[in-house]
Amino acid sequence: MRIAFLSTFYPYRGGIAQFGGALYKALEQQGHEVKAFTFSRQYPDFLFPGKSQYVDENDNSDAIPSEEVLDSINPFSYLKTAKEIKAYQPDVLVTQFWMSFFGPSCGTVAHIVGKECKVVSILHNVIPHEGRFFDKPFTKYFLKPHDAFITMSEAVESDLRKYENLKPSALRPHPLYDHFGEIADKKASRKVLKIDEELKTILFFGFIRDYKGLDLLIEAFGLMDESYQLVIAGEVYGSFENYEKLILENKNKERIHCFNQYISDQEVSTYFSASDVCVLPYRSATQSGVTAVSLHFEVPLIATDVGGLKELIKTGETGEIVAEAEVNLLYETMENFFANDPSVYQKHIQELKVEMSWDKFAENLVQFVEKLP
Q1: Which CATH number fits the domain 186-355, given the four candidates 3.40.30.10, 2.60.40.1840, 3.40.50.1100, 3.40.50.2000?
Q2: Which residues contact 242 (CB under 8 A, 6 or more apart)?
Q3: Domain 2-175+357-371 class, CATH top level
Q4: CA distance 271 to 258
Q5: Closest CA to 330 of 306, 302, 310
Q6: How many CB atoms lie within 10 A of CB 154?
Q7: How much is the pTM?
Q8: Which sign, positive or negative, has the C-alpha torsion 10, 140, 307, 262?
Q9: For residue 270, what pLDDT band results from cuts at 50, 70 and 90?
Q10: Residue 182: which residues within 8 A CB-CB, separation 6 or more?
């Protein structure tokens, strides 16, 4: 199959670019002809909340070859991108959607190209965690020219049906990221991070945003005894001031280790290998790429019962679910988790890894496209 793939790719960083790169490789390895099209400008700098949109020299990101042609805020580039994709003569255009901001640019390309081939989108989010006035019209505009959709959680599938009732979709679980390296020795990893080698270790990982509930985790950690330590690893989107205040007021502040920075790809293994559990205390969610990373490193998860998180986190098997984003419930769940036998979680996670490969996801995507009218 001849596939045009429109998404963010290398040299941009982040989970969506990593997802695109892994899927691109899997499709190529299965013998399909794939061409990647990405942004010449993804966000204007003043709209980007982090320090950089690009990978750095410490990242292990796959250098996916792509045409850097689409400027998210330049309509002339929308036409140019569509023209280049049409010249490639694909059987299908695959897009990714994760933020309504990209509705006009990617939606226009899909509209033009869709007159000549099938157009399918992989939906990471439909309704955003942090709403903006343009979300609804931009999302509608993006979805309209697509023929079908791939969703990765029941929550996203449900959100899609609030906009689009008739077009086909397929629910396929988020594959496990496997490009961050292998599992390392736990004590050696803790030594690298300069944290206690013996304490039970809780990890919060990923970009820090208000909806992710880090404040709840910090407060819950304050209820725990001296046998625990908390590792916070990720770049803050916005201000870290409120979190810093909570840490300074926390009775366990000496055992809270902050790595408030962008974590390069080659560092990811160290953080997960050092940890006993990864906690997602989210106030809202659809699905999270962090779950895929954590399960790759065979680290169980504790997450709040929001969005599609519980679809991969099976109670007593791959982790534990907290009924709601509340400090005492989070504390109790973490305590109960550490009272269980960790080998039980590891066994179930290893079984799950077999079913959630990129090859399987790519195979399912192609079969879905082939069945479209």
Answers
A1: 3.40.50.2000
A2: 215
A3: alpha beta
A4: 12
A5: 302
A6: 15
A7: 0.71
A8: positive
A9: very high
A10: 269
